[in-house]
Amino acid sequence: MSEIMHGAVAVVGGGIGGIQAALDLADSGFYVYLIEEGPAIGGRMAQLDKTFPTNDCAMCMLSPKLVEVGRHPNVQIMTLASVEALEGQPGNFQITLRQRPRYVDITRCIACGRCIASCVYQDAKFPSEFDVGLGKRKPIYIPFPQAVPLAAVVDPQTCIFFKSGRCPQNCLKACERGALDFTQTERVLTLDVGAVIVAPGFEPYDARRVGEYGFGRYANVLTAPQFERLLSASGPTTGKVLRPSDGKAPKKVAFIQCVGSRDLRHQSYCSAVCCMYATKEAIVAKEHDHAIEPTIFYIDLRAYGKGFENLVRRAKEEHGVRYVRSMISQVTEVPETKNLLVCYRDESGSLREEEFDLVVLAVGMRPSAKGQELARKLGIELNEHGFAKTSLFNPVMSTREGVFVTGAFTGPKDIPETVIQASAAAAAVEALLAPARGTRTKAKQYPEEFVSEGTPRIGVFVCHCGSNIAGVVDVKAVAEYAQTLPGVVHAENVLYTCSQDNLKHMKEVIREKQLNRVVVASCTPRNLAALFQDTIREAGLNKFLFEMVNIREQCSWVHSDQPEKATEKAKRLVRMGVAKARELKPLAVQSVKVTPVALVLGGGLSGMVAALTLADSGFETHLVEKSSELGSDLKEIARTPEGEDVQSLRANLLDRVCAHPKIRVRTNTAVKEISGFVGNFSTVLHRGEERIQHGVVIVATEAHEHKPNEYLYGEDGRVLTQRELEAKIERSEAREKTIVMIQCVGRNEQRPYCSRICCAEALQNALALLDQDPDRQVYVLYREMISYGFLEDLYRRARDSGVVFIRYDEQAPPVVRKERDQLFVTVRDARLRQEVLIKPDLVVLSTGVVPDPYNEELSRLLKVPLDAYGFFVEAHIKLRPVDFASHGIFLCGGSHAPGTISELIAKAQAAAGRAAIILSKEQLEAGGIVASVDPEKCTACLTCVRECPFGAVFINELGLAEIEAVKCQGCGICAADCPAKAIQLGQFEDIQELRMLEELFAYEH
Amino acid sequence: MIVADQKPIEEILQMLEPYKKVLFLGCQTCVAVCMAGGEKEVGLLAAAVRLARKQQGRPIEIIEGAVKRQCDDEFNEPWAKTIEQQEAVLSLACGVGVNKLSERFDVPILPALNTKFFGEVERQGVWAEVCAGCGNCILHLTGGICPIARCAKNLLNGPCGGVRADGTCEVAHNGPRPCAWVMIYERLGKLNQRQNIENIFAAKDWSSDRHGGPRKRVREDMLLET
Amino acid sequence: MNTNEPKIVAFCCHYCAFAAADLAGVLRLRYPPNVHIIRLPCTGKLDALYILKAFEAGADGVMVAGCLEGSCHFISGNLRAKKRVLAVKSLLPKLGIAPERLEFFNLSSAQGDRFAQIARELTERIKNLSPNPSPQEKGALEGGRR
Fold first, then answer.
1. Which of A650, B1, B31, B211 is the Cys-Cys partner for A634 at CB 3.0 to 4.6 Å?
2. ipTM score of the complex?
3. CA quadruple A418, A421, A425, A430: dihedral positive or negative?
4. pTM of the model
5. pLDDT tens readout for residues B179-203
């Protein structure tokens, strides 16, 4: 470790993982360079239409994150940049970057698209990277509508100017902002950083290499990423599913799974996400066009994550998606129709040929070529599959100290796992650089707010946005009209409201004319409202005395064919904005002090890792365990399926936890009562009625192996669970010759979820049994083999070692019986459609895991939700996997969802990292756009208390409803439903909304 | 609390037909809690009536207001001047409020609600009748479950033959509901008071109920007049 | 008021429908200028009163657009809004207002084209109804009562 320590971090890769890591670090006191190879951040997630298992819109979730990271004062986004070298040591690295020219000044570009329209290429001609080649772009283009940075980029590979030097450069003339600059050159720069997070993501497997499916030769064979773009409303067909060959809507669509995955000719591992994304795409396609009949051809259906089982069930039952278990050896094209013939083995085992209109290849994930190059430059090692090499117990640590790796760069994974690893990597960096926290970040200073009550004095700024607005709307007329409205003391039209010189001018006008409200009529408030609010705040106004009117995206750009009507509409919108401005009130933002102490509930693996991560980051942590010892969940596990020694992990964790000066452990202790809110919780423990003050809570309860009551378990000593077998093997006590393992025991209507870890446990034990004695006969009776990711190699080894795998149907589970002390197992082999009889010496049950029963009490105490099976429900399944919806409470451990040890460690680190964001702040801001109760009117009917999704409302000592500003998220549900009209939401008060309505209709030209 | 239901809008419009200047006065207590006549409902109903009348070409002028409790004169008094200037008042209180206003003001007071029962909040949006206000409480003998309010026949010695195998009552016009006497039986079991079920109640004296005519309660020590 | 230029108010959730309207602009889609958006933090903030007040103020049509079901930024706001809109929708005919004038939509922020399409269709639909309040409708209502 270097003596010099930089409080800055390089995050390489601007996908969802890189963005999450950057935000977590920047929010907890570190300066971040977010380095992206392409022209915009967003990564693969930006290209998705929906995400499984909830089928949420991907862009809806991602876009706010893009804006947030783009505006973050402590994040510098560097696009078109790649890493050249990394020198130095942890704490004091020098990272050298090469940044290619964009030929567009992003500080000037306003993404109006005039350059693109004027390009000498009249038609878009080059395959669009964003649309995976299905759409076209020009040499100058905006990567996608929500891109950050939102600016054009020139591709010198296709630009005539760079290719021939002879181009009229219409784009240069068309730009009203002088943003284009063809003299830009590549630059090389070196930055001082304390640590590096590497998140370059993955590459879809190149379907051309799987020649038998005809991708690239047959027009109607697409890859799943391409199909995703077809489904996207912002894609090349605006969301219509159309065949590339003839633009017609396909009826029969075939999905072929495992393209490039689980195949020794390509990649041996399972890509882990394809079963689910194909299920999602099939459902979404059907939603878009009901006539579509999707068929998914698969080998094993791996629906092993939270909520996945349910999605597959819905696909089958509600959407009529057909699943056919068959490997596809070949696809051939019917030349006349360009339809495709798919040959498969049907349920009865006979070969069939079926014609489809479209074939979608579920291509797997592979390590990107750029990622491999990057690894070389950073001096980190890769594993045998070409992904970053990590250890199971340190899932985000690379082989070079101070360099962390996350996301699909470490192996195939989905979005939540990527987000978890990103937060985990951020947490690891925080622990490493804790002493340098806050040394490179800046906090802005503002002047005192002046009292802005009294008669409204409104200033209205109407933006030309070059010709974007002024080219359609008569902005001068709009400004003149605004001048006539009551309360307006200043109105003007401005070329670019957002330009630095105008922002300065705006502050001057506020002072000169003593404005106490500001209205800006320009583009969407979603991008720039925060900028203007910051500007008026700099001029001493409360930032909520601001209203933004959208006359670009929602007026000039959509009504360019009707300029007069657009001008009228702009006037009406401005009139509405001014009406609202008249009613605006300054809103107070209070600072709430944070108690920089954490409470971790649950002293298993996850609790210990979370506590250590927090304590290493410098935060005092209370680790509270209900049972008599820490780490009891690991006690029965000897090793991981990959062979790592779990007992030494446990011993190591116990030593570190007990020796850590910042961790205070309490065993045999349950929680009696928790009160307070984010930053300031107060908890009473049962033992000794002790009270702890803390700023965050991490719920880290684990899940336990289910103890079955079927298959003679508990009646016959020869029937064991997998964990019990593992212990027996470890003690070298296993002598039995014929062993039958039954998977998915006790998985029924009440407990339909996949426990994710049992197949790997079975494989591990089966291999261990054969290692000890190769003459054994081991049978695994399974429903689906869930050997996702690199576990597939284990499955292959088991098959090669002679383990017999027999698949049974969910409806026909195996039967175990005992006759004259002999055990018999009968099972109907679903593939051979034959009954099989085995006389085992030992029957081993894979029973899955169940959440800790203590969760119910915790759920009540913390007011956090449990799902139908007793697992905790996170704030958002994709992007907030370790947060609860209630602020300041985080979750990890098996009681969130079952997972492998490695996955649980990453999740625990992630929860600790998210919690550290709060603890690293001296104060939290509360208030602003929050709801508040008028005690005069409140009748304590409890409607708000019952409805609030965040548990922010309580009945106070006066017996009236009160809203905890720190917890309130500002949705307004309570305000809208209050039967006594006692609740108002700041910035969206009824009077403000109703005045807008009145003024809209009062307008007559 | 008193649970009430808003009358159908058609009926309200018909009541208001003769009037052009009306005060809509809500009550912020029971009927606010049961979402029938609080300030929010006043706003909605007033907007709806204005809209309908505008469509009919016969606009109506409505003043909107709500008082803490319409069953107390003092809360209504601040509205006295306004009320006197109206052609009518539409009260969104329970029937008590309507009576109270009618006793005090010489303006037609119209009921916007149908007052229904004393009820509990089963869950948000659902209210159930659990007390009949009969004036002679026996809840200590029936495990806290009132057979007068919750048995369709007000039976004191139930259940009757109308209880179905699944424990619900044959009278189900408000949706299926459990037989009160089955509930009492089970509840008594939990309280270890099952022997109570063997008690034979004498015929109920209904004189304390409405059957004895309008009721009044006086508490002498609290009277202010000498 | 010109009968061919209905005024339509669109109450849009900041996170989805408002963003979808922005995207419609970015994609330079076209729809009639009759639709005026009022931004809400969530459709959960939509008070049923706003709908009635909009009609009272003279709106010819009202649309409310929240997130796709299951995607509400605030968990359940869009579900609450939908119920409120349905309640008002069933009330409208009793007030003499065609219920077709009010519609609830679920939109994702990526559905710029759908927003434009809805704006076009709703404008068209309402143009085909007579303006609010219309002499025709008034006549019809009185006729019905007699």
1. A650
2. 0.95
3. positive
4. 0.85
5. 999 999 999 999 999 999 998 999 9
